[in-house]
Design brief:
single chain; globular
Length: 255
């Protein structure tokens, strides 16, 4: 079972888009996938066609109220793809859990206790380095970082790396960055090529060969509650995420 946290504290990096569409194509290739929406904005939940006000039980209930996982887990309309949804109440979880012993490993304990079995667990982290992100980092074995091909792309990553280093040293020695995804890419733009070069110099073979190109259809799909392969399977976005999923599956052979 591969447990992957998709993280970047910079908003707009394509984090949720990556979680949902990569998860979908992995499921299309026969992998059993669980998505965990750790962001109180609930974008992964909405992207998959669930309206947060209509979600009775969410990750908040799982973490704070010890609600059974079976009451929280949602089957999506896509084969092999399940979801632990989010709601805005999750924003208060960090405060409510402040005095809880082992609060940074609650999610990990829940998944172990429930003997959760998937080929992939992919976690959508909030754009901050608080308790929710910490729960993802203590649960995950791998980190994928989507990096937008723009001027401020690498800003703030130093703090993220420090946090990952601390978690790896103190709580989760198995944690490693295993994938960098360049998003919103347009090879015609100098800035995109410059960022691409810097990212490749810094991360070397951790950078996926697939580039997620700028694509209007990718931006439109969430408002219809659909993954890109369901919304428009002929567009660049579908082509790119299908290619990325193949690369991720190839990594399985190296483990």
């Amino acid at each position: 079972m591969r447990k992957i946290a998709i993280i970047n504290q910079k908003g707009g990096s394509g984090k949720t888009t990556t979680v949902v569409n990569l998860g979908y194509y992995l499921a299309e290739y026969g992998r059993k996938v669980l998505l965990v929406d750790l962001d109180p904005q609930a974008h992964t939940t909405i992207h998959l066609g669930f309206e947060p006000p209509e979600v009775k039980k969410s990750l908040y209930d799982l973490l704070v109220n010890q609600t059974p996982l079976s009451e929280v887990l949602k089957q999506t309309k896509y084969k092999n793809l399940d979801l632990i949804p989010s709601k805005i109440e999750l924003a208060s979880a960090e405060i409510e859990l402040v005095n809880e012993v082992g609060r940074e490993i609650i999610l990990r304990k829940i998944l172990i206790q429930n003997k959760v079995k998937y080929d992939y667990i992919i976690m959508d982290c909030p754009p901050s380095l608080g308790l929710l992100t910490l729960n993802a980092l203590t649960t995950a074995k791998e980190i994928f970082i989507p990096i937008q091909a723009e001027f401020f792309a690498l800003e703030g990553l130093t703090k993220l790396f420090q946090t990952i280093k601390i978690v790896k040293e103190r709580v989760n020695p198995e944690l490693n960055i295993t994938g960098i995804i360049i998003t919103m890419y347009d090879r015609r733009k100098n800035i995109c090529r410059d960022v691409e070069k810097k990212v490749e110099e810094h991360f070397k073979d951790k950078v996926f060969k697939t580039r997620i190109r700028e694509n209007v259809r990718l931006a439109e799909a969430p408002s219809y509650g659909k993954v890109i392969g369901d919304f428009d399977k002929t567009c660049y976005g579908a082509e790119d995420f299908k290619s990325l999923a193949k690369e991720v599956i190839k990594q399985e052979n190296k483990k």
